[in-house]
Amino acid sequence: MLAHEFIRNAYLAGTGVALACGLVGWFTVLRGQVFAGDALSHVAFVGAIAAAVVGVDERVGLFVLTLGLAAVMAGLGRRAQADDVTIGVVFSWVLGIGVLLIAVLSTGSSGGNGLIVANTLFGSIFGLGVGQGIAAAAIGLGVVLAVVAIARPLLFATLDPELAGLHGVPVRVLGLVLLLLIGIVTAEGTRAIGALLVLGLIAAPAGAALRLTSKPYLGMALSAAIALAAMWGGIALSYVVPSLPPSTAIIALAVGAYALASMASTIAL
Questions:
Q1: Quick one: three-class SS letters along 137-149?
Q2: What is the pLDDT of residues 178-196, one digit of tens each?
Q3: Domains and their CATH numbers in the chain
């Protein structure tokens, strides 16, 4: 399997994306910001379509729009933690823009418009080149290092924001940083497993980890490990079963891990 370059590129990119999704996802679930992750995944989709309409690199649209609206949601939310109303307004507005952009794209002369939309929605991890794989791995590693660097104060700010503020912890700044990291993860994850499915890799491993342990650092490690196992296993499973899309296999394993963790925690109680 590893003799194929596209498989090696998929593992390279997938490893960085999975580790980043696992760590960021743990805080996303703990802080109740899964809806924000869902909104940003759809923003990433619209950003990719906007880039195609304008004629610039897909990554420009993905990251510019996703990070920009993550900052907007943080600015509108209390302690930079966007509430459901803020997210819902941004979500619906962005989807409306997305419908318009798809209509504009469909009237263009490019024959690859449908492929652009499909790849953005469902991912194309087997279609990544060497440079794209290295870039995804580097971005994922950068997000992992950022999460590790702010994990302690962010945990404090998450569990008791008032007390954290009294101790000089920059609660609002940390909330903004986390939303930006979620934006980066969703933007890069969209290229690998698609805008419709990237939320599963953010939420399911983290949810499983929180079911299995209440220890923060062990939970973060478990979340990252489950996401990585789902990514590696999904790629291998898709290679063995060519009719099975890699994104489907990856998310199926992540959701399966959550289901097993839920059953285990229920039995333990």
A1: HHHHHHHHHHHHH
A2: 988 988 888 888 777 777 7
A3: 5-196 (1.10.3470.10)
d(CA 61, CA 46): 8
In Å, how far from its chain's centre is CA 12? Answer: 17
CB proximity list for 156: less than 8 A, separation 6 or greater: 163, 164, 167, 169
Long-range contacts of residues 35-38, Cβ cutoff 8 Å, at least 24 apart = 35/84, 35/87, 36/73, 36/82, 36/87, 36/179, 36/182, 37/182, 37/186, 37/199, 37/202, 37/203, 38/91, 38/199
pTM of structure = 0.84
Which residues, 6+ apart, have CB-to-CB distance to 69 below 8 Å? Answer: 39, 40, 43, 90, 94, 183
Tracing tokens 């569990």 back to the chain, one arrives at 159
Instruction: Annotate 115-133 with b (16+ C-beta within 10 A) or e (fewer).
Output: ebbebbbbbbbbebeeebb
Residue owning tokens 């920059």: 170
- Asked if residues 41 and 94 have their Cβ atoms less than 8 Å apart, the reply is no
Q: Is the dihedral of CA 25, 164, 213, 29 positive or negative?
A: negative
Query: Would you place residue 233 in the very low, low, confident or very high pLDDT band (cuts 50, 70, 90)?
Result: very high
**Pairwise CA distance, residues 247 & 253, whole Å:** 10
